[in-house]
Amino acid sequence: MSTGVLPFVRGIDFSRNDFSGERFPHELEQMTHMTWLKLNRAQLERVPDELSRLTELEHLQMARNKLANVHGELSDLPHLRSVIVRHNQIKTSGIPTDIFRMKDLTIIDFSNNSLRDVPSNLEYAKCTIVLNLSHNNIENIPNQVFSNLVDLILLDLSDNKLDVLQPQIRRLINLQVLKLSNNPLNHFQLKLMPSMKTLRVLSLRNTHRNLNNLPPMWDDLENLQEIDLAENDLMTFPPNLHQLKNLAKLDVSRNKISKIEFPEGSFENLRTLNISVNELSAFPEGIVRCIKLQKIYASYNKLVFSGLPGGIGKLIQLELLYLSYNDLELIPEGISRCVKLQKLKLDSNKLITLPDGIHLLPDLKEMDLQNNPDIVMPPKPSDKQKALAYYNIDFSLSHQMKVAGQSPHSSASSVPGNVPKDAVQRKKDFIRRRRYQADQDGASKVIQGMSKIARDKNMNQSEDLPGTQPVMTWKEKMEKTQPKLDYSAFFEEGVGECEGLWVWEIENFNPQLVDEDYQDNFYEGDCYLILKTIKELSGNLTHQIYYWIGEKTTLDKGMCAAVHAVNLRNYLRASCRTIREEMNDESDEFLELFGGEIIYVAGARTQSGFFTVEKTAFVKRLYRATVNGSLVIMEPVPVNAESLDPRFVFLYDCGKTIWIWSGIRSRITVANKIRLFAVRMNKRDRKGKSEIETCNQRKVPEEFWNEFHGSPDAPEEPIVEHVPLDFEPERKKLYNVQIGMGFIELPQVELKSGVLKQNMLQTKSVYILDCTSDIFLWVGKKANRLLKMAGHKLVMELHSMLERPEYTQISRETEGEESTMFRSKFVGWDDIVPFDFTMTADTVQRRGADVKVILERDKMKTDLVALFLDRLPPMSHEDSDQMIMDCNADLEVIEAFVLQGRKFVKLPSNEFGTFYTMDCYVFLCRYGVPNEDSDISDEEGEEGDEERASKSDKTEDKADDFKCVVYFWQGRDAGNMGWLQFTFSLQKKFEELFKDKLEVVRMYQQQENHKFLSHFNKKFVIRRGRRNLTMNSGGKWPELFHMRANGSSLCTRTIQIDCKTDQLNSGFCYILRRPFPIADDEGVNGVVYIWIGNKSESYYHPVAKEVADELINREGDFSMEIINEGEEPDEFWEALGGKKPFETNADFMNYTRLFRCTNEKGYFSVSEKTVDFCQDDLDDDDVMIIDNGELVFLWIGTRASEVEGKLAYKAAQVYIGHMQNKQPDKPRKLVLSLKFHESKRFKRIFHGWSKHKVPAGD
């Protein structure tokens, strides 16, 4: 269906569409007012017939097609101004002769074709200003061409077979660009006439030029800016070429020049110099005076170090310097003063070293030093700015120690008088000054302009100073600012001027007067405005204004009723207030207006003023997904089994479900990226309401096939490879919708290499992105209404006029709310999700989730102080024993309970100190709190004896106070049901008994506090499994227990581990419980071995014997046997699965440290866990740094963010550098460790390592 917009189109760019065969859109002939048309790279084989209808066409481009002729249609375009048909297959006979007789024709471009002669009648195109016949096979130019085309500005005859040019060329007095390159011109001698003063560009590359056929004088060409004399027979530099005062670009490459001289005062405006592929051994003398030089090409010469001027540093505007393939051994120090240098090529020389200052060039982006085998790079100075590689944070050791409050240097070196001057800093300051000097010209112009504006502004302000005026009152201000509105358009004349009742209904935002017969009928979906006018005895009129709101009315009606009630009051100049009445809640005064009763009518009589938006039906779409670097490419394909290919991953969007189908030969990395794409798509476009399902070709669920083709069965035809290996998606085309006074234009945005970037979209514009099978209309926030309407109609026309697949869809995109599919078409828009998911909800609410914004605002605060603190020293055994005594001194009673079934029962006394990983325990401890009055100081003398005696008599009946603490202990394999059972049953009983004297402490396995551990006096055993199950099964298998203390003997635990030989370590004590299959004659059921490691501390030997005797063998039916390492019986090894090598060194216990790296505070911080850490201290949301004295492990949790991983990596490097200075005899190596993939060296750091806990729902 036509939108009627095509006749208003003045220009359109249809380049890069496929118009081969009969695909050219016939709708083009409706664009009768078109003035320009681009059909470049459109696969055209002939000139479309539709062009003959475009009688107002002025500019036509059909470059890079397959045209053999342009006969017919071009002759029907009387207003044609430019014809550009380069890069085709047009012959001379294929050009109509009558087109050159058009009076308005000014631009002719038949370059890169198959012309052998100049087109006939070309001399009649007398208005031509641009003529391009380059890259053809033309051998001669007729005299008439130069005689008649005297208005030519640009003439390009390069890459032909011209041997001579007619002397009439001197008649081209307006010529500015002359290109004759790559022609023989053996019989042509360039004679520059004074009439050619306008010439700006002269190209004579590869035209057999030498000193004999070049003009001897150049001073007449005062406007010449570019000259190309490359690939000629020049043996010496052309003399008098320096007469070209305004020359900006000079190319004499690929000649045989051995010496060049620049006289003083010459080439002052030169910006580009190309002297490559010559025989030069030195730069031109005086080149350092060309201070505007920006680019120098001097590769493939014989340059040596002495041939480079020492004052090359004066070229402060130099940006590019090519010196490849020369004989350079050194380069001058002055190059490091070219502060704007961006590219430096020195490959294939004989360089030995470079100047020290080469690293300090601020803009240097590329430096090529290949094929210099003997080069030794100068040491790179420490540059703080280049160290900020991770989120703008300086992770250098010296900086972090300074932040932590520690000095990285000795005190002697900090004395100001002893610090030498920094040579590197001096060079930096010099380069900064030179850079300022290079930019000074532009900056001075800006400052002058700003100063002028400021002076003009001050002058205007001084002229417009107001005089003294009286101060206005608030009433005068209100009257002055009150808008003068005319309400006569809403209310009829005579309303409210006499007694009566008027009722209006709201329709399409405006009040409409209701007939008197229906004033008491109120529709529940409408709103009404009611006016009651009463005449008082004094003759004055009073008004009552109501607005009535129906229960089912729309928002616009209710709002307009309130607004027009105020408008009615202003119209009547009344002083009453407007009164709101709601349906079913009317006031008595309101009902009295209608005789005490009104009639409710269902429905609504008037229409809403809002547009009704109907949701379009969702269409299922299938995308073939590919990955190109970080860019995800989604190619829509038909929804059928023939579209599937086992080498690809497909995304099937069903609305409520997003399926990801992976072929058997597809790559898993691609599937993972497509899943991330689907997650972003669901989060941004569906608000998380869609389900994401993945399946593989080998196992496809029935639900997928049901959604795919309505049947749970897989298709009968096999899924085969059908996509060509060289398949490339259609090139994207971005159209910019432009409007003017009665016309529309649709040019294309130039896409370099076909790449789309987000910055191409301007907020005041509307764009159409054509991806052939997807068309997007993008609307900027500041685009005007007419532009939006034009874009909407044009996208409909583009969809219909060009040949497309049936499954093509049109999508509307609004700036800031673009869909994930639209963003995926642009490079770098949606490649990485810039969020840190480890932040808490409170942090995200306060600071946002965008890491880039946080870094820019906060400069990413860090806290690495913990890395520089000393390790907590271990507590001596004497201090530990004393601490146990002190913690037990005030303990009066301790009672233990264990969860059995659904209730807590009292724990048998012989099980005190034995815990199971799947159980929960409760310990009720009563602590004595001495009465303050009972404390009698021993320092008091004998004189106080009587006073103390009297106090004692008064307080002897007063008992000491107490406090109860309930410890809830939960095993690492126990669920939370035990805690819930405790809080709803046992805890309530304790609270009733002890009231405010009760304190509840919840603890987890191996995370107990010292007070609690002291009550067991180092006899703390943790067994695997559940208490009842283990006791009932009888323990018919061998069990191995590992005794270990972390930090102090107070934290001694004996934990059951895997019963294997490789679990042993010579630095600890172990207890092996080995049951017999059948009790022996003496009734002994087994043996308990107490294995003493050779390097274990003797302090723990009696402790191990007590634990084995009281807790492991508490029934007393096992024999006890203490064995030292190396004295084991065969039965011992048999119980451990055979004798195998085991570790003999436990020195890591003296160095173990655990650091946690997190962003939960809103910035990156590192904190250290206590020395008594365990496996459960590894937080899955964070990154951990673990040190064992030899290796520093970087452990990354499965839910840790990429930001935390990168910052933790740098923090670990800082820690290793710090420990290298502190403990040079203990070098450390950084090792990565992932959850579920930990090495044995990592696991041994943790006491009683077992499987990771899996959170509920994972």
TrEMBL record:
Taxonomy, superkingdom: Eukaryota
Keywords of the record: Leucine-rich repeat, Repeat
A GO CC annotation given for this chain: actin cytoskeleton
GO terms assigned for molecular function: actin filament binding; phosphatidylinositol-4,5-bisphosphate binding
GO biological process, one term: barbed-end actin filament capping
A Pfam family annotated for this UniProt entry: Gelsolin
PROSITE patterns linked to this entry: LRR (PS51450)
Comp. bias intervals (Acidic residues): 934-946
Residue ranges annotated for the Gelsolin-like domain, each copy included: 519-591, 634-705, 752-823, 1057-1133, 1166-1224
Region Disordered, annotated ranges: 934-955
Similarity comment: Belongs to the villin/gelsolin family.
Protein name: Gelsolin-like domain-containing protein
Organism for this UniProt entry: Panagrolaimus superbus
